[in-house]
Amino acid sequence: MKKNKNKMGEIDYILFYTIFLLLAIGIVMVYSSSSYWAMMNKDFNNDSMYFLKRQGAFGLLGAGVMIFMMSIDYHKLKKWCGWIMLFTIACLVVVLVIGTKKNGAVRWIALGPINLQPSEIAKYSIVIFLAAVIESGGNKINDVKFIITRLLGMSAFFAGLVLLEKNLSIATVIMMSTLIILYASGVPKKIFAMLLSVVGIAGVAGIFAESYRVKRLFNFVDPWKHASTDGYQLIQSFYALGAGGVGGMGLGQSRQKTLYMPEPHTDFIFSIIGEELGLIGCVVIILLFILLVYRGILISLRAKDIFGSLLALGITSVIAIQALINIAVVTGSMPVTGVPLPFISYGGSALIINLIGMGILLNVSRQKDR
Predict the structure, then answer these.
(1) What is the pLDDT of residues 171-229, one digit of tens each?
(2) Which of 69, 107, 286, 330 is most buried by its number of CB atoms within 10 A?
(3) How far is Cα 84 from Cα 81, in angstroms, rounded to an integer?
(4) How many whole angstroms separate alpha carbon 140 and alpha carbon 193?
(5) In terms of domain of life, where is this protein from (predicted)?
(6) Residue ranges of the domains in the chain?
(7) Which positions ≥6 away from 106 have C-beta within 8 Å?
(8) Backbone phi, then psi, for 101, in 5-degree steps?
């Protein structure tokens, strides 16, 4: 009997268990950081377990979809690429028309119990597109016109739509992951330097295009100057991290989550982790992300084709960039911007879509070049 050449091997179990460990920590910390906030808020029925129930349900759904995606041959994504792109563009346009507005930004489409955030889909759609087009283009990766019009142009288009949602942070993630993929694809150094400069200038222009972003930039330099307004959230993060010390105050013992830190279960959850679990807890989280990125890079290097290699690298880059930005913001290493910590911060659509990305990455790991 002939062996099936397309038979897939085992997944990368180190990556698999790392993902579930981060997911478990995230659900626990969402509950710990949100319980007081939810209990004191009528919008959540004064239910201290409100966010735990939702994040737990999203986690189970996302884990199921991830396991399903592990069994789907990632090469099928090339055939579906056009439809994925059209769907993503449609969602990005729809959110601008009928999206839910929150804190001055329109980023969500209300779909019953889930608020879909199209920008989360866009991050991975552009990765699939770039991987497919670069592989099919072959030696065109040395052609300036091909790089600018087909590759960077499409990424800039997606980033532009996301920027219209007042979401510079995710637009930045899209462009940074694009640059990583282009660099790994072998774009000539001179062309890459030019692209890097263009993207950098566009990023600076994006900051100065909105007054609130300029305020965040200068506030980052001296948050104490406006301690009760623009600098408030960052200062509360400093208090939380400082109070945690090396060993932390203990799980559930955070003081900053008791209505001092605004929405402590979202973008600034890492500061609550620092307060309750201390430096040790923060280091463990960082090491888990480093391990995830390391395994993702190994999968990229061992992939059996260019499409799989770039797909794995792009997915890994999206997670790595988000984790890096989030931790940098919380620790005051860069201006405040709204990037959630993958698998840890509260958010249904973000969690599910990230786990779908991990399912694709694990599928690539099943088809490595032996």
Answers:
(1) 999 999 999 999 999 898 999 999 999 999 988 888 888 877 787 777 777 888 877 77
(2) 330
(3) 5
(4) 18
(5) Bacteria
(6) 13-365
(7) 95, 96, 99, 100, 165, 166
(8) -95, 135
Give the C-alpha distances (Å, rounded to integers) separating 355 from 11, 44, 59, 108, 359. 15, 26, 9, 19, 6
Q: What sign does the CA torsion over 304, 324, 35, 280 have?
A: positive
User: What is the model's pTM?
Assistant: 0.93
If 0-12 CB within 10 Å is exposed, 13-18 middle and 19+ buried, where does residue 224 land? Answer: exposed
Q: Tens digit of pLDDT for each residue in 286-304? A: 999 999 999 999 999 999 9
Query: Quick check: helix, strand or coil at residue 103?
Result: coil
Identify whether the C-beta of residue 261 lies closer than 8 Å to the C-beta of residue 330. Answer: no
Concatenating the DSSP letter of every residue in 111-122 gives: ETTEEE-HHHHH
Burial class (CB in 10 A: 0-12, 13-18, 19+), 15: buried
- Helix count and strand count (H, E) for the chain: 13, 3
CA distances from 230 to 53, 77, 215, 217 (A): 32, 43, 8, 10
Which of 130, 124, 62 minimizes the C-alpha distance to 88?
Answer: 124
Read off the tokens for 134: 């670069």
Q: What does DSSP assign to residue 140? A: G
Q: Do the beta carbons of residue 122 and residue 162 sit within 8 Å?
A: yes
